[in-house]
């Protein structure tokens, strides 16, 4: 399954987003995008408190805009190209750390924290094993044939190696 085909045609229409979301680091990308928005916006935004206008404009506004746009791009990359999730996560953490001195303490710490959490989640995410691997090898025996049989059990005379003789038949000896 790739970004071009979000879910197979056999999946019901209401479950396609769920299937798409479970095959990629969705929450990591969402946190990264949310973290990039305040970092990019705050150096250019104004806040009004009654008749008082609080301008957050800084001389490093271009740097903050670049960091914010890169974080949004990395978040979208985590969604649509999950194979590069480790690179995107490391780059997100580095950009989040760089945003502290560049962009009003990392978007007033909110964007910085979202970027760190999103980057860490992206690095930690791993795709789920395929369903066939999770269930193990297919079972070849007919269940009716083996219904009355008991598996072979080893007595105390069986020893896997010579070192297990000293352990009185135990199978968990270290040496």
Quick overview:
The protein is mostly helical and 175 residues long. It has eight helices and two strands; from the N terminus they run ααββαααααα. Strands 1-2 form a two-stranded antiparallel ribbon.
Chain-wise SSE layout:
Elements: H1 16-22, H2 26-41, E1 46-49, E2 52-55, H3 61-80, H4 85-102, H5 104-108, H6 110-124, H7 131-135, H8 163-166
Antiparallel strand pairs: 1-2
What does this molecule look like?
This protein has 175 residues and is mainly alpha-helical. The chain is 51% helix and 5% strand. It is built from 8 helices and 2 strands, in the order ααββαααααα. It has helices spanning 16-22, 26-41, 61-80, 85-102, 104-108, 110-124, 131-135, 163-166; strands at residues 46-49, 52-55. The chain has a two-stranded antiparallel sheet. α2 packs antiparallel against α6 (110-124) and α3 packs antiparallel against α4. The longest helix has 20 residues, at 61-80. The two termini are 46 Å apart. The mean pLDDT is 77.
């Amino acid at each position: 399954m790739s970004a071009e085909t979000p879910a197979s045609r056999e999946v019901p229409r209401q479950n396609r987003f769920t299937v798409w979301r479970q095959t990629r680091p969705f929450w990591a990308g969402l946190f990264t995008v949310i973290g990039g928005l305040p970092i990019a916006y705050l150096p250019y935004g104004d806040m009004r408190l009654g008749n008082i206008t609080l301008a957050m404009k800084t001389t490093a506004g271009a740097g903050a805009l670049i960091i914010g746009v890169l974080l949004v791009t990395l978040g979208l990359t985590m969604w649509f190209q999950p194979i590069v999730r480790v690179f995107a996560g490391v780059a997100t953490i580095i950009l989040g750390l760089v945003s502290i001195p560049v962009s009003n303490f990392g978007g007033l710490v909110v964007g910085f924290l979202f970027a760190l959490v999103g980057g860490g989640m992206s690095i930690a995410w791993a795709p789920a094993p395929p369903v066939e691997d999770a269930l193990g090898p297919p079972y070849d025996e007919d269940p009716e044939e083996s219904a009355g049989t008991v598996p072979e059990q080893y007595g105390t005379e069986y020893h896997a190696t010579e070192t297990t003789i000293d352990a009185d038949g135990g199978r968990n000896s270290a040496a």
